[in-house]
Amino acid sequence: MLKPIIIANWKLNGDKILVQKFIKKISFDYKKYFKKNTIILSPPIIYIEYMKKCMKNLKLSFAVQNVDYNYQGAFTGEISTYMVQEIGAKYVILGHSERRKNHFENNLLVAKKFYCTKINNLIPILCIGETKNEKKSGLTKSILKKQIDEIFLICGKNAFNNTLIAYEPIWAIGTGTNASPILINKILKFIKKYIIYKSDNTNIKFYMQYGGSVSTENIKDIICQKYVDGVLIGSGSLNYKNFLKMIQISSKN
Ligand code: PEP
Questions:
Q1: Residue 83: CB partners within 8 Å, gap ≥ 6?
Q2: Separation of CA 127 and ligand 1 centre (Å)
Q3: Whether the Cβ atoms of residue 196 and residue 227 lie closer than 8 Å to each other
Q4: Which of 43, 72, 204, 208 is placed for a possible disulfide with 47 were both Cys, Cβ 3.0 to 4.6 Å?
Q5: Is 96 a residue of the active site?
Q6: What is the CA(107)–ligand 1 centre distance, in A?
Q7: What beta strand segments (E) does the chain contain?
Q8: Helix, strand, coil: what percent of the chain each, to 5?
């Protein structure tokens, strides 16, 4: 069976002290639980090197929270896929709703970043999801389709091979209200079928995450759903006690 994939997105949070404490604490339980899960840490990019230094022999993977689609040049403030590779991160979170909202990233821009990430041998973690109003208006599936279609348009039929997709309903992110496990399963099933249909390939390999107020209370019921390969945890991943507890619960799944 596939190991659950647990992604910790620290967003714009944390400092060197938290990095030290976090790594020290999770090191204790590393052997016991971590091998039963695939753990991907995504602190702010500036702390990745330091986190690696603190980790010593721990084998954890890293994701960055954003990337530019240009390889190099006059793009002040941006980071390239080459730089991401140099610091040893393997994954790139793309299309997070906070970037879509606060940095005006539309589906086309996200697709360009996705393309650049893939051709430079990094693995995209594509976040998609609808707002509360879109959900109320019954638009969830059409919004998800649009977000997925643009990736196919720019990257071609095999776009999603060896990628991760996180269904992150915007109404659930940072609100303390998660989508129900039944709804998560239903939507992930829809996403999976749609991608297979658009890829015209039943063997295409991609993994599906849920993100949005995942906590120690709800992870058990979410992770055991048929179409859930793992979870993306935001604020809950900053507290190492809770984070460890979630990994522990997911190990028993
Ligand atoms: C996120 O930002 O991707 C996320 C899932 O956040 P939270 O867990 O805080 O809802």
A1: none
A2: 11
A3: no
A4: 43
A5: yes
A6: 20
A7: 5-9, 38-42, 61-64, 91-94, 123-128, 163-167, 206-211, 230-233
A8: 45, 15, 35
14: left (phi > 0), else alpha (psi -120 to 50), else beta? Answer: left
CB burial of 57-67 (b: ≥16 within 10 Å; e: otherwise) equals eeebbbbbbbb
Report pLDDT digits (tens) over 124-178.
999 999 999 999 999 999 999 999 999 999 999 999 999 999 999 999 999 999 9
- Burial of 252 by CB count in 10 Å (0-12 exposed, 13-18 middle, 19+ buried)? exposed
Cβ pair 232, 211 in contact under 8 A:
yes
CA distance 104 to 96: 11
CATH of 5-251, one of 3.20.20.70, 3.40.50.10860, 3.90.180.10, 3.40.50.2000: 3.20.20.70
Q: Show the CA angle centred on residue 181, arms to residues 33 and 171, nearest 5°.
A: 105
Alpha-carbon distance 140 to 130, whole Å? 6
Q: Where are the domains of the chain?
A: 5-251
Specify whether 168 is catalytic: yes
pTM for the complete prediction? Answer: 0.96
- Angle between helix 16-33 and helix 240-251 axes, rounded to 10 deg: 20
List of the chain residues with pLDDT < 50 = none
Q: Which atom of ligand 1 is nearest to the CA of 214?
A: 8
Q: Whose CA is nearest to atom 4 of ligand 1?
A: 234
Q: Answer whether 36's CB lies under 8 Å from 223's CB.
A: no
